[in-house]
């Protein structure tokens, strides 16, 4: 895998996310505020819209959200009629929060505490679609063994998917070419989901990149 690195950040540590979701779980229990929607509602809408408009995936397809956090993306999919939904996260409080929200919203979504950075992780199921809204970004900010963790992540995502399965990755750190390099083993880029652009210093860029890859 290409050696592309970023400065480390607390966002790349499990301690940060455990602390964050412990607070958000307590807050939800007191106020019913679901907390931050990572990447925002517009990013979620773009992913959901693409899935609904694409013939590669139907409403009965199995969908796994990797690093699901509070489960907002899965809640949106459930509200649109998708049935076979599961979220995993390495933070137990994130999973407890997601379970509580889904129960209150009366959606049947499965959640499980799983560390996607466990080497050679054996999935309990193989999925038609895997989703990542910021998880690979967080891994890329890890303060230690970043390249090893990225390699494990790519291998595990590949093992989660059925042959021909779809992987949708949303990132604010990685460009399209960089993602293609990171996922060149076992994945083919199918499509880039349009996102807003900005211009700075005469150069145009995107605030986020959302790519659709397919397991080969």
From TrEMBL:
Principal location: cytoplasm
Record InterPro entries: Efm4/METTL10, Methyltranfer_dom, SAM-dependent_MTases_sf
Name of a matching Pfam family: Methyltransf_31
Entry superkingdom: Eukaryota
Protein keywords: Cytoplasm, Methyltransferase, S-adenosyl-L-methionine, Transferase
Entry's Gene Ontology cellular component terms: cytoplasm
Protein localization: Cytoplasm
Function field: S-adenosyl-L-methionine-dependent protein-lysine N-methyltransferase that methylates elongation factor 1-alpha.
UniProt similarity note: Belongs to the class I-like SAM-binding methyltransferase superfamily. EFM4 family.
Protein name as annotated: Protein-lysine N-methyltransferase LSH36_332g01040
Protein's organism: Paralvinella palmiformis
């Amino acid at each position: 895998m290409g050696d592309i690195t970023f400065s480390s950040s607390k966002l790349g540590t499990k301690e940060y996310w455990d602390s964050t979701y412990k607070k958000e779980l307590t807050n939800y229990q007191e106020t019913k505020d679901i907390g931050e929607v990572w990447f925002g509602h517009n990013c979620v809408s773009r992913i959901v819209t693409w899935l609904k408009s694409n013939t590669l995936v139907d409403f009965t397809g199995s969908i796994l959200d990797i690093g699901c956090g509070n489960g907002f993306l899965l809640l949106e999919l459930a509200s649109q009629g998708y049935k076979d939904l599961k979220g995993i996260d390495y933070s137990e409080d994130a999973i407890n929060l997601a379970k509580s929200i889904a129960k209150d919203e009366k959606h049947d979504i499965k959640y499980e505490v799983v560390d996607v950075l466990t080497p050679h992780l054996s999935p309990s199921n193989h999925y038609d679609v895997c989703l990542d809204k910021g998880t690979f970004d967080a891994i890329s900010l890890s303060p230690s063994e970043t390249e090893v963790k990225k390699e494990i992540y790519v291998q595990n995502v590949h093992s989660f998917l059925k042959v021909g399965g779809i992987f949708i990755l949303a990132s604010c750190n990685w460009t399209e070419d960089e993602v293609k390099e990171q996922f060149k083993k076992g994945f083919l880029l199918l499509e880039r989901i349009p996102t807003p652009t900005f211009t700075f210093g005469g150069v145009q860029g995107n605030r986020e990149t959302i790519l659709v890859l397919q397991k080969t």
